[in-house]
């Protein structure tokens, strides 16, 4: 298990992937999806039209978990322009074993998270959530085939609901490449 954890921590370094110029138009946009919030309510992602959106796969027992604080600070500083959406996942090292209620309590108590958090999802594999299938399937999003390689990978969506960037776990909201992507 330690080998798996270490592989996850070092596998993706600071990987960033940007949508190439003149890519094939996406067959879908973010606005085509409905997801469940942590409290079980259906959320139509079209409610984020006109805003940039950052999608994070999160975990409560990961070396990157302190990023919750970084992303909360970013969310507070950019409210109205950029949305941060958290999707807990237990895909990497079993680092998100809790229920939705436990996840919500953990995020609030330890990091004061106010950005929207959603029900736990699979980000890869046979049970992959439809949103993550779109984010990581070139034929659906127009260019990207990167699935999360560990917890706290980021996808950037533009104001039209199109995927524009993928960032690995180590990239934080103050990283130059991320700041460039959200200009």
TrEMBL record:
Presence of the UniProt keyword Cell inner membrane in the record: no
Signal peptide region: none
Domain (Thioredoxin): residue spans on this chain: 24-183
Full protein name: Glutathione peroxidase
Lineage: superkingdom: Bacteria
Family as reported in the entry's similarity comment: Belongs to the glutathione peroxidase family.
Database matches in InterPro entries: Glutathione_peroxidase, GPX_AS, Thioredoxin-like_sf, Thioredoxin_domain
Keywords noted in UniProt: Oxidoreductase, Peroxidase
Any one GO molecular-function label of the UniProt entry: peroxidase activity
Active site: 62
Lineage: Bacteria, Pseudomonadati, Bacteroidota, Cytophagia, Cytophagales
UniProt xrefs under CDD domains: GSH_Peroxidase
GO BP annotations listed: response to oxidative stress
């Amino acid at each position: 298990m330690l080998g798996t954890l270490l592989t996850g921590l070092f596998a993706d370094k600071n990987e960033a992937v940007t949508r190439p110029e003149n890519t094939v138009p996406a067959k879908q946009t973010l606005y085509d999806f409905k997801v469940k919030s942590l409290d079980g309510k259906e959320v139509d992602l079209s409610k984020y039209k006109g805003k940039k959106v950052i999608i994070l796969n999160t975990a409560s027992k990961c070396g990157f978990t302190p990023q919750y604080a970084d992303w909360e600070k970013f969310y507070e500083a950019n409210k109205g322009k950029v949305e941060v959406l958290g999707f807990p996942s237990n895909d990497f090292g079993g680092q998100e074993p809790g229920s939705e209620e436990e996840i919500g309590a953990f995020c609030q108590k330890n990091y004061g998270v106010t950005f929207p958090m959603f029900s736990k999802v699979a980000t890869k594999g046979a049970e992959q959530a439809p949103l993550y299938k779109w984010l990581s399937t070139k034929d659906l999003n127009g260019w990207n085939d990167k699935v999360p390689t560990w917890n706290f990978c980021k996808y950037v969506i533009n104001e039209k609901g199109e995927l524009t960037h993928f960032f690995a776990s180590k990239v934080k909201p103050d990283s130059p490449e991320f700041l460039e992507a959200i200009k």
